[in-house]
Amino acid sequence: MTSIEVRELSKVYRRTRAVDGIDFSVRPGRVTGFLGPNGAGKSTTMRLILGLDRPSSGTATIGGRRFRDIDWPLRTVGALLDAAAAHSARTAHDHLLALAVGNRIPARRVTAVLEEVGLGAMARRRVRTYSLGMRQRLGIAAALLGDPPVVMLDEPSNGLDPEGIIWIRETLRRLAGEGRTVLVSSHLMGETAAFADQLIVLGRGRVLADTALQTFIGDH
Ligand code: ADP
Ligand code: ADP
């Protein structure tokens, strides 16, 4: 089982303490909502966990390792960060195939995962012709490509229509039900509380609350 552990993590840009000495754990088998208004430090924290930025101090590990020490990262952690930024001239299929090859993931996973996110019919179209909602789905396909035990998604509902938002919730619940560690950021507390098991609330780079949600109905 693979947890994310964040310890005394800080990131200071020139003028901003984007992340200010935070501690939390994200555990398997749950959807953990990562909440806070714009500028709270959610994306910075996710980038630090993924080794895309260097912490000013503190540590972030996935399954006890720093991201850069993980051999085949996509097989350990799938992340959706800025889906809107995807504007490859490649087709969705070729875009994912390049990621698969680099991470020793079988090519047949590409077709399977594009079907899984509802892009099967659009697989041979160029990514730069995709709508924002399709880019979100493609980003989720990239995150799931390596069948990873840990999935991190930054605002995955952005650009999705209501049907897409229901789909993303169901997908996240399924992933947690399969025992994966799911961290999903949002600035919408109510929406996230409706499907998350745990909420971590960030404000001005600090953890304001870290709470397990009670289940009133059923037993997920
Ligand atoms: P959130 O994802 O919660 O909206 P961010 O992590 O994007 O928050 O931003 C946290 C703070 O850090 C904000 O004040 C933002 O302006 C600042 N920040 C983020 N990235 C950079 C950067 N590369 N350089 C300078 N400041 C940054
Ligand atoms: P570049 O444009 O630099 O070639 P890539 O898209 O190939 O970037 O990604 C570089 C590395 O980042 C990949 O080898 C992979 O480990 C990691 N990476 C890319 N996409 C994801 C993702 N969705 N989730 C986790 N890691 C990713």
UniProtKB/TrEMBL annotation:
It comes from the Bacteria. The keyword ATP-binding applies. GO terms for molecular function: ATP binding; ATP hydrolysis activity. The keyword DNA damage does not apply. Residues 4-220 form the ABC transporter domain. Keywords: ATP-binding, Nucleotide-binding, Transport. Belongs to the ABC transporter superfamily. This is ATP-binding cassette domain-containing protein. It comes from Nocardia speluncae. The lineage of its organism: Bacteria, Bacillati, Actinomycetota, Actinomycetes, Mycobacteriales.
